[in-house]
Amino acid sequence: MTEHVEDVGILASCAGEVLAPQDAMLALENLTTHYGPVQALNDVSLAVGKGEIVTLIGANGAGKTTLLMSICGDPRPTSGRVWFEGEEITGTPTARVMRGGLSVVPEGRRIFTGMTVEENLAMGGYYQTREENERSIEHVLDLFPRLRERFNQRGGTMSGGEQQMLAIGRALMSRPRLLLLDEPSLGLAPIVIGQIFDIVEQLREQGTTIFLVEQNAHRALSIADRGYVLEHGHVVLADSGKALLANDDVRRAYLGG
Amino acid sequence: MAQILKKAGTSPAEAIPPQPSYRRPWWSATAAAVLTLVLGGSVLGVQLESTGITTTVRLMGMETWGWLLAAALAVFLHQLIRPQVEDWRARTRKPSRFTLPKIFSGQKRQLWIMLAIGALLIFPFMSNRSAVDLATLTLIYIMLGLGLNVVVGLAGLLDLGYVGFYAVGAYTYALLNSYLGFSFWEALPLAGLMTALFGYLLGFPVLRLRGDYLAIVTLGFGEIIRILLNNWTELTGGPNGIARIPKPTFFDLEFTRKAQEGNVPFHEYFGIAYDPSYKIIYLYLLALILVLITLFVIYRLLRMPIGRAWEALREDDIACRSLGMNPTGIKLSAFTIGASFAGFAGAFFAARQGFISPESFTFIESAIILAIVVLGGMGSQLGVILAAIAMTLLPELAREFNEYRMLLFGLMMVLMMVWRPQGLVPLKRPHMELDRG
């Protein structure tokens, strides 16, 4: 598993055709990120095509969250380039990146616990006009009927699954074309995880591209078109979701044998 | 048989497990009393006396030591009965000890607000001069408290140098008046703008800092402003301050017995006898109007997206950034808006006093304003008002304790933090309710 994969279709879709970074929805080109002197990501390249669900799996501390946050521009990568919809966004301020058709559901949900569901959602569309905001809220509530029931309830008083729905709903408020999800299954009961992954698939059907970072490798790989395996800041494997599920190394390391 | 009985009789005593030290009241009471004597004795019981170059330690008289012994005894007894008192308190504790009367919420709220404003408008005409004067001072503190509440209570930025903005506002009016002859009404908006500018300039570099670091920088800022005003003698008059700052006028009518050249005093214009209390009442009403405007503006801001963004930022910085919000910009807006209210309050303060010097803008003022915000219950407008009233009225009511004012102030803060750490009126966030009719 430690051998470094250089050529295995890093920028390739599963069909094998090579995707130039400008043509992908999201592409990372030789991305390296440091926290002070500590290197967290080492020469990572990957691509997400339009309409795909792509997952990134890896152990604790492999650099999954760092990779996701590097896309958002915080921390800024030390070297390498990030492309979104054919435009380079490396070094663009986080706030600007997040307003440009890309949205992230941060690790640990991070909803505003003292605010109601409505207010949480409203913050997701902070830069929209009032009408746009109301329409987006309606759209999110259609997607998550549970949130409609909890509309005036404070975020902090809801269950973990509901909070995760709220976090996803809040990220969807800005009508992103690409949704980055950081461990949506964290701390949730299996049945709730199932619901969350159903929603992710449903979002893709509605045309949102999904980049999913997960520790729950089995679930993530079963819904993903393609997957990448991150180890110690390197991409060590890249293949279709099915192939990775069947891969012996992946089975041993992430799927419990 | 007797032996067995005897044995059975002793066994319960042996069964009592060894108790931790706090359960041994005699021991802890003695220790506390000795500690009281040592500490109190070394602070109050002896006096340093210097004769020439030698310093001698002199024991205080019998009276002082008598009090110290009494204090030690009191501590001893208190420690002795504390377990019983705590048990009793635990047994008699009720779930909710203090709730506000319903008038502060509910449907009749608007009616109550109108009644309160009406009462406040009539108040100066039914009251004496010193009460109105005190009420004006209270209103200034309410305005300051409301302004700082935006920064500390809502945006969660600990600002220990708020008095710096207050000083900027006051000096803006005083300087504009003494050098360029601006009237109060011309200077008031400029004072607000000037402090907003200062807030912006200070906020821009420091708002990247968090928590303690921000507190220290703002503390430094407050001191820098004061020291600058103290030392820039050519411009500000240094420690001598600026005197003869004119009072606000009522549509250009002055409240003096004789007006300046080419002007008519208020009482002559209306053909009534001169009364110095008109001026006091006018200042009070002016302060009231400024406070009402402040309240209204902040009330509106809270219901706008920016107000929610302040709270969101206080709750979770990272979530805000993940939603594309710019934390620095949002913090800056809170800092600038909060500062500008201090500017208005400062300009009014200068006009009311007629004289300002750096003395009025020491750190203790910042501490008092912060205490008002904390006491009121971070973020709550009503709480700030009540706390400001308490903080200005209590020292007046307890005049005879004047020297112990700071002691009482500290005691009040400690007691508040112990019994009601969330403040007098904890923030109840505005939110819409569905009509369940």
UniProtKB/TrEMBL annotation, chain B:
<dbReference type="InterPro" id="IPR001851">
    <property type="entry name" value="ABC_transp_permease"/>
</dbReference>
<protein>
    <submittedName>
        <fullName>High-affinity branched-chain amino acid ABC transporter permease LivM</fullName>
    </submittedName>
</protein>
<keyword id="KW-0812">Transmembrane</keyword>
<feature type="transmembrane region" description="Helical">
    <location>
        <begin position="281"/>
        <end position="302"/>
    </location>
</feature>
<keyword id="KW-1133">Transmembrane helix</keyword>
<feature type="transmembrane region" description="Helical">
    <location>
        <begin position="332"/>
        <end position="355"/>
    </location>
</feature>
<feature type="transmembrane region" description="Helical">
    <location>
        <begin position="26"/>
        <end position="44"/>
    </location>
</feature>
<dbReference type="InterPro" id="IPR043428">
    <property type="entry name" value="LivM-like"/>
</dbReference>
<feature type="transmembrane region" description="Helical">
    <location>
        <begin position="64"/>
        <end position="81"/>
    </location>
</feature>
<dbReference type="Pfam" id="PF02653">
    <property type="entry name" value="BPD_transp_2"/>
</dbReference>
<dbReference type="GO" id="GO:0005886">
    <property type="term" value="C:plasma membrane"/>
</dbReference>
<feature type="domain" description="High-affinity branched-chain amino acid transport system permease LivHM N-terminal">
    <location>
        <begin position="28"/>
        <end position="122"/>
    </location>
</feature>
<dbReference type="InterPro" id="IPR021807">
    <property type="entry name" value="LivHM_N"/>
</dbReference>
<dbReference type="GO" id="GO:0015658">
    <property type="term" value="F:branched-chain amino acid transmembrane transporter activity"/>
</dbReference>
<feature type="transmembrane region" description="Helical">
    <location>
        <begin position="188"/>
        <end position="206"/>
    </location>
</feature>
<dbReference type="Pfam" id="PF11862">
    <property type="entry name" value="DUF3382"/>
</dbReference>
<feature type="transmembrane region" description="Helical">
    <location>
        <begin position="139"/>
        <end position="158"/>
    </location>
</feature>
<feature type="transmembrane region" description="Helical">
    <location>
        <begin position="165"/>
        <end position="182"/>
    </location>
</feature>
<feature type="transmembrane region" description="Helical">
    <location>
        <begin position="406"/>
        <end position="422"/>
    </location>
</feature>
<keyword id="KW-0472">Membrane</keyword>
<feature type="transmembrane region" description="Helical">
    <location>
        <begin position="111"/>
        <end position="127"/>
    </location>
</feature>
<keyword id="KW-1003">Cell membrane</keyword>
<feature type="transmembrane region" description="Helical">
    <location>
        <begin position="367"/>
        <end position="394"/>
    </location>
</feature>
